[in-house]
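subagent[fold] <- orchestrator: predict structure for attached chain, return tokens only, no commentary.
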Amino acid sequence: MGKLIAIDGLDGSGKKTQSDILCHRIGDRGIRVRELSFPVYESESSALARLYLSGGLGKKPDDTNAYAASMFFAANRYVTYRLDWHADAEDPETVIIANRYTTANAIHQLTKLPREGWDGFLLWLFDFEYKKLGLPKPDIVIFLEVPPEVTLSLIKTRTDETGLVRDIHESDTAYIKACYEAAVYAANRLGWHTIKCHRTGAGGRPEMKSRDEIADDVERAVVKELYLSGFGP
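subagent[fold] -> orchestrator:
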């Protein structure tokens, strides 16, 4: 088996940016690397995930229960694994970097349940994807920790700049705040590597670190955990 690195966090936290940077840094050191981004919207298997995110099953995330929504995204991972990236995952010389993974279901679906049901859901989720479906388990999970007030600002900026329509996750402020609590809980409970992506700015308000500062922290965590030959400072 190769190495699998999952990078996750709230919407707007910079997952794609950090996945891209880490991919280049690993590749520059002569290591074969494959970058994935979930959901894979180009795959027909994303149909239910797209229906859910576009509001086709309800305008609020809570309109679809945590288990059903999780299965939509899991199906997309399973189909693309079988048809596309299975060989790379099996190659001991390849490092796979996933922008979102099973961990995204923990962040976005956990909050739909009462707190006393969180641990049970996490047990079900990872048993379902890693054991029942046979998807590879990440060797390391990087959690990009960004406070919800910063996340909301970043989402607005991205929407204004790109003109993209927000999905039901991105457009629900209360849901984003609840997902932050769930994400921090999951990261602590499951031993994810938390990367603090913010600092205290003017007026005591949090502001984002530079993308290179964050990338350096991500790189250090990956090197320490995976001992990648020829990778790192």
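orchestrator: received. Logging for downstream: The domain at 3-226 is CATH 3.40.50.300 (Rossmann fold). The mean pLDDT is 92.
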